[in-house]
Amino acid sequence: MRYTAATREEGLARMRAFEPRMGQAYAKGRNFDHGPNAHRDVSGLSPFLRRRLVLEEEVVAAALKGHGPDAAEKFIQEVIWRGYFKGWLEHRPSIWASYRTGLLRDLEALEGARNLRRAVALAESGQTGIECFDFWAQELVDTGYLHNHARMWFASIWIFTLDLPWRLGADFFYRHLLDGDPASNTLGWRWVAGLHTRGKAYAAQAWNIAQFTGQRFTPRAQDLAVTVEGLQASEPEGLPPVVPLRKAAAPDPAQPCALLITEEDCRVEDFGLGGYDIRANATFAASHLRSPGHVSAAVADFEAGALRDAAARASGGAEGLRAGVASDLAQWAANAGARQIVTGYVPEGPLRDWLNEAAPALRDAGITLCEWQRDWDKAIWPHATAGFFKVKKAIPRIISQRQLL
Asked: Mean pLDDT for the chain?
């Protein structure tokens, strides 16, 4: 999958091109990984959806219009998985905190473990000797994309065949995936490891890889882990309890504000900007926060393009800021005479962590961070407290509530 322009126009063009395949063609072909530049049975919209250059709601509406709720059922469910994972992590923010601290421990352990360090390096560079795995590692680095089925196989081989720390694998993905999302990436790896659905790990199987790659790869059964047991013993306490969803401060139209555009929502024009006293506009680059390691230049470039496109549609231009010293954000808003910073909702992830660190400086400057939250998220997230089935059951009601049919 090759991506040339990180713009809403490009995302909409991809959506329109894939609309004829959002029904039975997707349901029948979605599990097949045909290889780079041949992923014809999946939309490739995820980098645009991740930044809301294109909205999940728009894509679901297009699928319903073209195919109806029955034929488009599988495609709609897969789109809504993104919202499910985000809502699930919002209900359990300690899972994200645990991932971040665990990753730091794993990276620190690498320093004193030469054999492990070498094994991780070989895996990331595609030199393990497992042909399919090595190909996917290179495809990820070269294109910033992997088919979802390949992501599952890759993660399973990383964890159970190569016996490598799962957080290091998740970090490798997050540093390179153009659609890298803290919820989907972290929980996807946890799911494979048997930590999301407790005790139900995902096993990469030779026959499955051969069938769904169209025999491009035919690993031997003995090349892969024979026994796959979940890593739940590493978290014997189980999942943390569900907590209420965070209530974001809503913007006050009567207060002067500074508009902050992040890759968490590149459609801020949807929030009625004309009704606010906006004193300054800025885009906020934050992809470097994804990892303590090197984040792919392709990821940073896609983020930069999405932010430029968002600023052009929302305000005709904006100052470029970068997440750095926490007090800089407060200083920027204060210099503009703003009393509040307004932005799209920032869910759990590295940018939310950074904004939490910036909160004392904002408070000292008398500036409130305010967020617009989308009705789509409000419709899905309350159901995302357990497995996907609870959300799946609510989909007809969500479609009706949002008047998509």
From this structure: 96
